[in-house]
Write a sequence for this structure.
């Protein structure tokens, strides 16, 4: 038994799906237990060991003034901070609020708006503190998480993917749904990570892993127009789990003008 | 490569009803037949039990950025052209284990991956694909470094070619002299005749092995009319091609145009998705990926298809040589249609059209080259 890492798992505005990916590593959990001291992971155990921590996995986005303070504390307590999932790396689906006026909708949704203390934007962790590594995805790929943990354990630099989802489609022999079925697909501008799950089932990629390193979103929008996709639907395609990621945000705004 | 319009070699007529016998014979000889088939509504290359697995009665519509399968009026076996996948899938697989390493008492031992390669019978290899295999042979078998997996697979494989009697909108083999008829590099070549005169295959043997196989098949002598009919169909497939790639001036033409404004134009449309190179039957780039176990005592190395449209493809110590889409597309085209000639003595293109069909942005290399010709760069 070699080095052990003292790990904390934090939750901000999120659905818990990414944290669950950690528990979902069934086949590896016993082996992981030899290397990780899970010191703080409320989703899994109410036993809490106080910091500092070697590694903090942070799920969720910052949406309240209290969380904006709490994330600073997480940074102080942690040697390494890894943001996990689309909420933590891009603001998540809740970043749809960034396109609306919070003062307008809060009274519509809540009977007592005066109790609601929220920020007008949902923002990624890196906008608040220094993040050492980002693992994108909605949810993250548990094997990418495992790979990151292995790399940190053994002092390697984690090797994040930097390829389109298309690369995965072609390697796996998945026939292109955009070309062969005319289905709008975000794969050409999206980071790979899911194993091209949706194209394997005749669906276009939803962009869960966010923009890849040089996303030519306007060229892809031109492809969608050629397929006959309406401007309003192009906006919707770019506004899902990574609506707040800069490239997708800009592209959806560009189509709001035409719409 | 010689004239693509001439059919030659030992010939016979195989009635379509005897097509099963060819598959049975190949199995008997120990081959695993693979070829085009429809899975989940898509045209792919996969194992075939017999001719019933073929996309009989289907045709393809392939143009820039768009592909569809459609029903045909007749029951032809080979009334379609190319799908997304090429024989590279078998000869140069997308993901291949290379080596594993293990640490034991401080010493590291290496074990090369044992990749079992079945003797495939490739059924339905088109002329442009024979050209692609010929090109990959030059690259992967001619040294200085030989790809052992490619060599083993290639050595064991038997090739049944099919001459194209129709072409797709995307095809431009005729302009490159690589098709639509197979002239070399096959064991057997079939030309399908399906019409009022009956349903037959005109069979040519292209190797001794092919001749031996042909001798075992139920066959009839070729009638003059059947020969003529086959010639006419193949010639019509060549004539019907509207796309072409003019090769005059290559490679110098491209070397002189590295700063041509067309590169910016194409970069505005290009997604850097890599599809063009991934589907190209001659592209051979790869990267290595490594995986360790949690204890860091065993590691495995994999070879993965990689393409020049990926950022990391140009990573060297200190940074990336090709950060922009423009630089990446320019690299791709200038290599395929330029530097390839200097490096391997042939073009990196066979005219199969896959890159333009499977490009989501419908970028057509023949049009890009034409545009690069049209506006000479400012001095
Ligand atoms: S299905 Fe989507 S992700 Fe896959 S190759 Fe086509 S465009 Fe790319
Ligand atoms: S460059 Fe395009 S047309 Fe030429 S062989 Fe490759 S995929 Fe086919
Ligand atoms: S030319 Fe087309 S297929 Fe190739 S990288 Fe650009 S957009 Fe993708």
């Amino acid at each position: 038994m070699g080095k052990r890492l003292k790990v904390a798992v934090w939750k901000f505005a999120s659905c818990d799906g990414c944290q669950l990916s950690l528990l979902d590593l069934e086949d590896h959990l016993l082996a992981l237990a030899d290397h990780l001291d899970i010191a703080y992971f409320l989703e899994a155990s109410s036993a809490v060991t106080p910091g500092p921590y070697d590694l903090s996995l942070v799920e969720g986005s910052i949406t309240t003034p209290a969380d904006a303070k709490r994330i600073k504390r997480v940074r102080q307590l942690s040697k390494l901070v890894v943001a996990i999932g689309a909420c933590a790396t891009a603001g998540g689906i809740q970043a749809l609020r960034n396109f609306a006026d919070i003062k307008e909708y809060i009274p519509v949704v809540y009977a007592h708006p005066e109790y609601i203390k929220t920020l007008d934007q949902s923002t990624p962790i890196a906008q608040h503190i220094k993040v050492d590594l980002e693992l994108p995805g909605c949810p993250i790929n548990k094997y990418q998480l495992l790979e990151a943990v292995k790399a940190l354990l053994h002092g390697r630099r984690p090797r994040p993917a930097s390829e389109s989802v298309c690369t995965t489609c072609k390697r796996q022999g998945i026939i292109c749904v955009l070309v062969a079925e005319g289905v709008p697909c975000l794969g050409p501008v999206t980071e790979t990570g899911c194993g091209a799950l949706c194209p394997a089932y005749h669906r276009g990629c939803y962009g869960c892993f966010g923009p890849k390193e040089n996303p030519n979103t306007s060229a892809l929008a031109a492809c969608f127009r050629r397929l006959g996709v309406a401007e309003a639907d192009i906006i919707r395609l770019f506004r899902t789990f990574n609506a707040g990621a800069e490239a997708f945000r800009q592209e959806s705004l560009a189509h709001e003008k035409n719409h | 490569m010689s004239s693509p319009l001439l059919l030659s070699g030992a010939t016979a007529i195989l009635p379509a009803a005897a097509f099963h016998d060819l598959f049975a014979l190949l199995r008997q000889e120990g081959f695993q037949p693979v070829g085009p088939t429809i899975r989940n509504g898509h045209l792919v290359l996969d194992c075939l039990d017999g001719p019933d697995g073929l996309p009989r009665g289907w045709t393809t519509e392939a143009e820039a950025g768009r592909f569809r399968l459609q029903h045909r009026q007749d029951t032809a076996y080979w009334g379609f052209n190319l799908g997304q996948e090429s024989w590279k899938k078998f000869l140069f697989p997308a993901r291949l284990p290379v080596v594993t390493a293990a640490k034991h008492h401080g010493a590291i031992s290496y074990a090369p991956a044992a990749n079992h390669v079945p003797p495939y019978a490739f059924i339905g290899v088109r002329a442009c694909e024979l050209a692609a295999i010929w090109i990959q042979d030059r690259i992967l078998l001619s040294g200085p470094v030989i790809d052992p997996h490619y060599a083993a697979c290639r050595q064991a494989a038997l090739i049944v070619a099919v001459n194209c009697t129709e072409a797709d909108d995307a095809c431009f083999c005729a302009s490159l002299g690589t098709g639509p008829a197979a002239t070399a590099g096959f064991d057997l070549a079939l030309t399908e005749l399906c019409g009022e005169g009956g349903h037959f295959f005109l069979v040519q043997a292209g190797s001794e092995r092919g001749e031996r196989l042909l001798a075992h098949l139920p066959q009839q002598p070729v009638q003059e009319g059947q020969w003529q009919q086959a010639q006419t169909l193949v010639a019509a497939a060549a004539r019907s091609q509207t796309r072409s790639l003019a090769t005059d001036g290559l490679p110098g033409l491209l070397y002189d145009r590295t700063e041509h404004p067309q590169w910016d134009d194409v970069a505005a449309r290009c997604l850097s998705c890599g599809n063009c190179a991934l589907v190209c039957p001659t592209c051979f780039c790869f990267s290595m990926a490594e995986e360790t176990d949690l204890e860091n005592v065993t590691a495995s190395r994999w070879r993965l298809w990689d393409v020049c449209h990926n950022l990391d493809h140009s990573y060297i110590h200190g940074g990336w040589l090709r950060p922009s889409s423009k630089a990446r597309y320019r690299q791709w085209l200038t290599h395929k249609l330029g530097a390839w000639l200097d490096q391997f003595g042939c073009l990196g293109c066979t005219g199969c059209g896959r890159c333009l069909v499977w490009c989501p942005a419908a970028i057509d290399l023949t049009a890009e080259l034409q545009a690069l010709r049209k506006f000479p760069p400012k001095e």
Summary: Residues 65-77 of chain A form the longest helix (13 residues). Chain A is about 40% helix and 10% strand. Chain A touches chain B through 39 residues (CB under 8 Å).
